[in-house]
């Protein structure tokens, strides 16, 4: 046992040495955990922002002016006027997502209690903005009309007062969400690629054969790769969480960082195990790339880090329970946003350990057979 | 009168970065004969040949080949028709998955030969080389000797005037080697005007050449007839003459290798193979091999590449499981999991297998630790190894930068650091220069004679085999004979080991005289003079056809091409959804009145919300929300019902989980709608008539997608993404693959033009992408129920232009990258960013600002997105979309033009 541990330690040090000597990989790790996290978090917003609005105003009254004046950035770009016969073509070309059209004598009809209709055309192929954007526009129109009619800026006459409070992210700032999820996705990508590539590189260079004739067991070689690459990634991820997410993007972290890190370590162990497993199915780097691309896309997109799990069909939700990424996303969201403790997240941790063990043992069984085979 | 030289070089210098491959070489190579370049690896032979063949660009100096300046474009094109070039490496210019016939057929097409002409020529060549029994065997499954014969056939298919062969016989068994040279002699008899230039590392072989140039360190050190060179150095063999001609510094430390006699040791054999067999599928790599190696013996293993030497050695180390039979070490069955045995064995594999990122000393230290040398003696042992193997000077350098000879010494030092009793060495001296080889053998002999180490070594070199105590001759998985070198030679009635080996090989092949070389070659048809066109559709087709066959035979790439997009479409279709529904909610009802229950019913009745068990306290509500059991928590205050009836505007608190902002935003919208409808219900009940609190209403029309479901918007976008990502990656890989495997040499040395090559490579991927598009349409309809509402023609034309552009983009990426990994990675990364972020997949293009908008416009995806979404969801046709088609056509032209310009016909 002692021998096993020292060998794992030695081989792991060698692994870190190889990593240190590869500037491209180092650069990739740094890029992925700094710039990539920052740009995705600040760039890819799913909330309504800069939505394009056009209008057809056949009334040209004070009321329509007030409504149009209330359509403001950052949610909306300033509305552009178009003529009625342009509606079709601007929507077909995707130039505008929303087109409002005010009927003639709109203001007069409002004042006379005739309840005129405003038409809101929505390009429903722009899913990210169409739904929430149209709700916002309806609210703006209702509020402006109510204020106009009552002459009172705080006019609401509703029988109940629905107080909606948003927990865990009160301002619904998407940076809070996407920055942390991006780190998680990057952990997945790097763990699989780094360990898989490390193994295939040794195989292509013939060094793996060399190790296998020495008094070193496959489990030592695998565990050494897991700890060394895992360590590099976890250090990079923690730095990224600390520097990019907490300091630069100013995202508050609700829960315990040590708990998150220990979960991340378990997760790394299981996905690096998966990387080795995938590597045992391929003989060259290009093949490994072709195999891991779909696996990584599935693991990241369907884990709940992009869209909520409950939006997926139930059968798919069940299948995705087999991916460690699903559990890690649930685990991280619980700790980082909701401030959950070990009592809440332990089942996810247990599943990650179990899945990791399965990957590891399948990989171990295949290791000797596939690694030394002449081809 | 002597004819003018076939090639003449004047002051040619060639550098690769810092290293100089050729320095100021001036050389005239005589025509109409067999001219040889001799010298070990890395002295510049290959560079010299590539320059003469015109596959490499001349840097400085001048070269006249076949009577013209090779740097002149027109003459180079003419030379492409008249020169045949066979690069170094076993079957390196062949396509391993193509059959023997298909390979030759491809080369015939490159030279514009008609179907009938090709058939005649191929039949003749196969008959002449003895390959005629296996026209359908894949080239990758041929033995080394057969590969080289096939390679030669492909070089001869167009009756070249000059044949350039770069180490054609390295790693080939002696019989095949002999047959190969006989074959060339035979062809030269038929076409006496043909010139042949050959490079070789085997000095014995060079004895039969008509003219020689000996090279060392980028310089020609001697030229002339073989006898002239030998006589000038006063040595009996070329190898010895070569060493004698080396400058003093290079010869330093060279001593004649002498093998003292071995003292027999008693005890069981150190290594014993009993009926050792290994199958790979239906191929038997090692077939019932038997031998015993005595302790302290140097046992040589002689045979060609691929004859089973390596596999046998791997079985003896436990790396490869034996299919049948037993391997014994010191009389005990080999147990690959027994760590104690591994301490007794040292192994050196064929390819260099040390860690390039560690220094020489660190490599030794790592191995000392892994072999568990005691801490007290570890440093001492490392120091001793550095001393014994003359590595002290280079101890702190990385092995990558060291000459091969030193690296091999380091490998040996690493293999013996734990003082093993048995040493297994797989071709340790391949490619090493003669001086370093002799030095290496001094070490082996010392280990064997002074330390009693049993050495099992494989080699190609006959002079090395002669130094072994005993050798075994191996061929096609079988051991042909075992004995001392002298015994083996005697039993075939000769004193030359090589001749004896050839004799054994003939015997094994069941043939006394040798078939192939004796076969009369039918006269080849006359070369047909055709006009040389700069664009020939037949050559383009040759590449397209070959690429298609290769993909069809590669299950990994085929699966990726066809399953990849479908799998990813399913993932994206399900994974990226903006439909928020079935939001779990729980309530803490402190009122428990009819009114509060009614409020809750309006929640549970909505398709957007799904009810979870009610909570009994605020604390419980909070705690359960933390576990993400539900995302909406409703708290109804006490006295809600009464105050509602009184019209007091009671407050209902709702907490929404904001961890996912998009979901939370949508949830808030739902809550507002729900509250409004609940209220109008209440008002209607209270006042008996419907009441609309608003003075104006908004009529929202969701256009193009009335059901407002994500799939109708996502699927066309996913098709856009799939048709850029996968075709670009595959096309990029397709071209760079040729660079990596070396078959790019066929593009450089044949008349195929850059445009033909690029379009020919691209065409199959366009077809694959269109087929994959069809499969995506089927999945869109079958799984997601998405149909094309607009013009199918506009969609088809747009898709064709789009995949032409995206495969063109892949080809473009491949002209700038060297490895398949880099090419696929670059193609994926560069295309994903504009396609995902700036083409309207997630954020509508109209919301993008300056930079993002421009990046989107500068890439085909944003234009195709309009066509895809337009025809699928918006029901549009060509009249509305033609501008996008025009833009895509522009990208096609641009990408292909830049690729053609960026691809160099000659290597730098």
Automatic annotation (TrEMBL), chain A:
Gene Ontology CC: plasma membrane
Domain of life: Bacteria
Family matches, as InterPro entries: ABC-2_transporter_component, ABC2_TM, ABC2_TM_bact-type
Signal peptide location: none
Localization in the cell: Cell membrane
Membrane-crossing residue ranges in chain numbering: 21-41, 175-200, 221-245, 257-281, 288-306, 344-364
Keyword Transmembrane helix: yes
Database matches in Gene3D superfamilies: abc type-2 transporter like domain
Keywords: Cell membrane, Membrane, Transmembrane, Transmembrane helix, Transport
GO molecular function, one term: ABC-type transporter activity
Membrane topology: Multi-pass membrane protein
Ranges where the ABC transmembrane type-2 domain occurs: 130-370
Protein family (similarity comment): Belongs to the ABC-2 integral membrane protein family.
Protein name, as recorded: ABC transporter permease subunit
UniProtKB/TrEMBL annotation, chain B:
Domain of life: Bacteria
Gene3D superfamilies the UniProt entry points to: abc type-2 transporter like domain, P-loop containing nucleotide triphosphate hydrolases
Domain ABC transporter per the UniProt entry, residue ranges: 7-242, 271-501
Residues covered by the ABC transmembrane type-2 domain: 676-906
Membrane topology: Multi-pass membrane protein
GO MF terms held by the record: ABC-type transporter activity; ATP binding; ATP hydrolysis activity
Transmembrane segments: 711-736, 763-784, 790-814, 821-843, 882-903
Name used for this protein in its record: Ribosome-associated ATPase/putative transporter RbbA
């Amino acid at each position: 046992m002692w021998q096993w541990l020292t060998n794992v330690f030695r081989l792991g040090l060698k692994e870190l040495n190889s990593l240190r000597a590869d500037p491209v990989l180092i650069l990739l790790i740094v890029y992925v955990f700094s710039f990539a996290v920052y740009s995705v978090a600040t760039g890819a917003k799913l909330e309504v922002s800069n939505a394009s609005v056009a209008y057809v105003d056949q009334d040209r009254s004070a009321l329509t002016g007030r409504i149009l004046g209330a359509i403001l950035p950052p949610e909306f770009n300033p509305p552009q006027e178009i003529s009625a016969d342009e509606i079709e073509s601007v929507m077909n070309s995707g130039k505008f997502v929303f087109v409002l059209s005010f009927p003639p004598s709109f203001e007069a009809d409002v004042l006379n209690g005739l309840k005129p209709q405003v038409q809101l055309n929505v390009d429903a192929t722009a899913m990210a903005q169409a739904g929430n954007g149209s709700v916002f526009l309806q609210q703006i129109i209702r509020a402006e009309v109510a204020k106009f009619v009552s002459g009172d800026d705080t006019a609401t006459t509703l029988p109940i007062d629905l107080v909606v409070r948003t927990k865990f992210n009160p301002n619904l700032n998407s940076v809070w969400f996407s920055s942390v999820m991006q780190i998680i996705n990057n952990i997945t990508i790097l763990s699989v690629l780094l360990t898989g590539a490390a193994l295939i590189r040794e195989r292509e260079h013939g060094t793996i054969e060399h190790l296998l004739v020495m008094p070193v067991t496959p489990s030592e070689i695998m565990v050494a790769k897991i700890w060394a690459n895992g360590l590099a990634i976890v250090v990079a991820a923690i730095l990224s969480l600390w520097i990019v997410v907490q300091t630069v993007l100013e995202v508050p972290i609700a829960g315990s960082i040590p708990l998150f890190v220990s979960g991340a370590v378990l997760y790394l162990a299981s996905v690096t195990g998966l990387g080795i497993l995938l590597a045992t199915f391929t003989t060259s780097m290009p093949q490994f790339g072709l195999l891991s691309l779909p696996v990584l896309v599935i693991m990241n997109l369907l884990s709940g880090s992009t869209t909520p799990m409950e939006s997926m069909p139930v059968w798919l939700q069940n299948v995705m329970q087999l991916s460690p990424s699903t559990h890690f996303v649930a685990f991280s969201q619980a700790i980082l946003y909701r401030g959950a403790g070990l009592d809440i997240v332990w089942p996810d941790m247990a599943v990650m350990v179990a899945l990791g063990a399965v990957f590891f043992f399948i990989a171990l069984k295949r290791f000797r057979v596939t690694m030394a085979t002449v081809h | 009168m002597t004819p003018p030289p076939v090639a003449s070089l004047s002051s040619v210098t060639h550098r690769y970065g810092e290293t100089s491959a050729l320095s100021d070489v001036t050389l005239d190579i005589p025509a109409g004969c067999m001219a040889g370049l001799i010298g070990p690896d890395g002295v510049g032979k290959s560079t010299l040949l590539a320059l003469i063949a015109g596959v490499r660009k001349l840097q400085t100096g001048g070269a006249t080949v076949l009577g013209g300046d090779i740097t002149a474009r027109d003459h180079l094109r003419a030379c492409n028709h008249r020169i045949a070039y066979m690069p170094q490496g076993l079957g390196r210019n062949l396509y391993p998955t193509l059959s023997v016939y298909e390979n030759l057929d491809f080369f015939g097409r490159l030279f514009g030969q008609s179907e009938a002409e090709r058939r005649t020529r191929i039949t003749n060549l196969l008959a002449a080389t003895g390959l005629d029994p296996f026209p359908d065997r894949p080239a990758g499954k041929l033995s080394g000797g057969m590969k080289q014969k096939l390679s030669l056939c492909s070089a001869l298919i167009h009756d070249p005037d000059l044949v350039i062969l770069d180490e054609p016989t390295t790693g080939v068994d002696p019989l095949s080697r002999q047959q190969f040279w006989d074959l060339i002699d035979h062809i030269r008899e038929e076409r006496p005007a043909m010139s042949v230039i050959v490079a070789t590392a085997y000095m014995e072989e060079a004895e039969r050449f008509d003219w020689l140039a000996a090279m060392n360190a980028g310089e020609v050190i001697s030229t002339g007839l073989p006898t002239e060179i030998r006589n000038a150095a006063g040595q009996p063999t070329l190898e010895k003459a070569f060493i004698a001609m080396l400058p003093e510094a290079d010869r330093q430390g060279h001593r004649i290798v002498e093998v003292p006699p071995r003292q027999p040791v008693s005890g069981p054999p150190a290594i014993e193979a009993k009926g050792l067999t290994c199958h790979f599928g239906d191929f038997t790599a090692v077939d019932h091999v038997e031998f015993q190696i005595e302790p302290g013996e140097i046992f040589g293993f002689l045979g060609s590449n691929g004859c089973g030497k390596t596999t046998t050695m791997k079985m003896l180390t436990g790396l490869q499981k034996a299919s049948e039979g037993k391997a014994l070490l010191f009389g005990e069955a080999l147990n690959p999991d027994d760590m104690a045995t591994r301490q007794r064995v040292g192994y050196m594999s064929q390819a260099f297998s040390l860690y390039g990122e560690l220094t020489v000393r660190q490599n030794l230290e790592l191995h000392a630790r892994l072999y568990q040398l005691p801490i007290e003696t570890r440093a001492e042992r490392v120091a001793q190894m550095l001393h014994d193997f003359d590595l002290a000077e280079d101890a702190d350098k990385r092995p990558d930068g060291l000459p091969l000879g030193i690296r091999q010494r380091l490998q040996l030092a690493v293999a013996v650091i734990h003082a093993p009793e048995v040493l297994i060495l797989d071709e340790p001296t391949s490619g090493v220069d003669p001086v370093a080889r002799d030095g290496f053998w001094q070490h082996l002999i010392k280990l064997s004679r002074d330390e009693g180490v049993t050495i099992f070594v494989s080699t190609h070199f006959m002079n090395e085999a002669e130094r072994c105590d005993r050798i075994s001759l191996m061929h096609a998985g079988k051991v042909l004979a075992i004995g001392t070198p002298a015994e083996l030679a005697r039993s075939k009635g000769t004193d030359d080991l090589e001749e004896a080996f050839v004799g054994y090989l003939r015997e094994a092949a069941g043939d006394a005289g040798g078939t192939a070389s004796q076969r009369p070659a039918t006269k080849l048809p006359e070369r047909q003079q055709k006009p040389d066109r700069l664009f020939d559709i037949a050559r383009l087709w040759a590449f397209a056809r070959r690429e298609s066959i290769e993909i069809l035979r590669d299950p990994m790439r085929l699966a990726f091409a066809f399953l990849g997009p479908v799998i990813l479409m399913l993932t994206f279709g399900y994974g990226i959804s903006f439909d928020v529904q079935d939001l779990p909610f729980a309530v803490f009802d402190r009122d428990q009145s009819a009114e509060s229950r009614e409020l809750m019913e309006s929640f549970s009745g909505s398709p957007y919300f799904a009810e979870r068990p009610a909570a009994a306290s605020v604390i419980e509500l909070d705690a359960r929300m933390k576990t993400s059991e539900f995302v909406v928590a409703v708290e109804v205050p006490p006295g809600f019902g009464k105050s509602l009836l009184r019209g007091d505007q009671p407050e209902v608190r709702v907490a929404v989980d904001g961890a996912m902002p998009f979901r939370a935003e949508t949830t808030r919208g739902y809550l507002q709608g729900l509250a409004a409808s609940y209220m109008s219900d209440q008002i209607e009940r209270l006042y008996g008539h419907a009441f609309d609190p608003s003075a104006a209403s908004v009529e929202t029309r969701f256009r193009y997608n009335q059901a407002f479901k994500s799939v109708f918007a996502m699927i066309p976008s996913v098709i856009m993404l799939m048709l850029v990502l996968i075709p670009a990656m595959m096309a990029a890989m397709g071209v760079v693959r040729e660079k990596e495997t070396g078959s790019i040499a066929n593009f450089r040395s044949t008349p195929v033009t850059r445009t033909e090559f690029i379009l020919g490579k691209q065409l199959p991927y366009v077809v694959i992408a269109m087929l994959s598009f069809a499969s995506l349409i089927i999945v869109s309809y079958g799984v997601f129920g998405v149909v094309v509402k607009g013009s199918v023609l506009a969609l088809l034309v747009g898709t064709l232009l789009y995949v032409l552009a995206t495969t063109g983009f892949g080809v473009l990426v491949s002209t700038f990258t060297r490895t398949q990994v880099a090419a696929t990675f670059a193609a994926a990364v560069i295309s994903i960013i504009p396609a995902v972020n700036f083409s309207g997949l997630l954020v509508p293009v109209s919301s993008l600002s300056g930079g993002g908008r421009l990046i989107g416009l500068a890439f085909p995806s944003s234009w195709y997105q309009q066509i895809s979404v337009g025809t699928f969801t918006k029901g549009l046709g060509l009249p509305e979309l033609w501008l996008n088609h025009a833009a895509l056509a522009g990208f096609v032209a641009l990408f292909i033009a830049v690729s053609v310009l960026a691809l160099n016909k000659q290597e730098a």
